Each structure stands twice: as C-alpha cells, then as structure tokens.
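Good day; I would like, with your permission, to put a structural problem before you. What I wish to show you is a protein chain and, alongside it, a tokenised description of its three-dimensional fold. Here, with my thanks, is the record as I have it:
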Amino acid sequence: MTTLAQARAVASATLAHGRSIGAAPLTVAVLDAGGHLVVLEREDGSGILRPQIACAKAWSALGMGFSSREIGVRAERQPVFFGALAAVADGRWAPAAGGVLLRSDDGSVTGAVGVSGDVSDVDEECALAGVAAAGLRSDPPAGGATAGPPGGSGAR
C-alpha cells in the first residue's frame, strides 16, 4: 500500500526534479494499488488537461502491470487490442511514457505515479527521480528510462 506520506514525498520530489532540469510546469498524480488518487499536485502554469493525463498514465500502468511507456510500445504492435482497451478504460488510458509502478521490496505493486506537462521522456524521468528520492522502488527501476521513446512516441 502506498501511504499518504509516501505519496506526498514522491510528488514533492518529482516536482523538485522537474524544476532542477528546467522541465515545463508539471502535474503529478500518485495512485494506490486500487487505482484511487492519493495525491495530485499541479504546478502553476500546468495545462488544464494535465491532471487527467497524469492520472491516466498512472492508471494505465496499474491496469496493465507495466509502465505506460511499455504500453505505448505494445500498442504500436497491437493497435486493435489496445484500441479496445482504451474504450474499456472509459478515457483513463494514456499509452505514453510518464506512468510508472510503485513496488514494495518483495516486488508487489503498491501504487503508481503519473506525470504530465513536458514531453513524455521528461515526464518519465521526473517520475522515476521522484520515486527514487522518496526511497521507494519503481518499475522500470530508476535509471531504466531510455534517452528516446521506443517506437518514436514522444507524446506529451
């Protein structure tokens, strides 16, 4: 289970990392393992759809059991299946980097983080940095993000 204190720490560290690298204004959502919103923080100037996108990235990762970056990669290979998932998800679907799972020491999923505001690679970098700075485990592991999006995603 992701606690409120952990979620706040992840959100704060995520936004701090964004500021340290000069990211566009970000929104970060931290969900528990059941997909319920624990913390949502939106920086001044972050767009009006960013809360929904951040939640959708985290919710997508939880629903599929892997990062939203991986969802994007798989969606390119199986567009019909992932199109159907988008319909089933009632709009809470974002197959772009920026949504990562939170894991306990034994590997079980305890929640997810979604970030939106900059390009997807930067969103994911901030999410991973926030998780690591809060002393938690992420999926993919911190440092596991790639320099460029697989499959040329780059979606915001």
Remarks:
- Residues 142-156 have pLDDT under 50 and may be disordered.
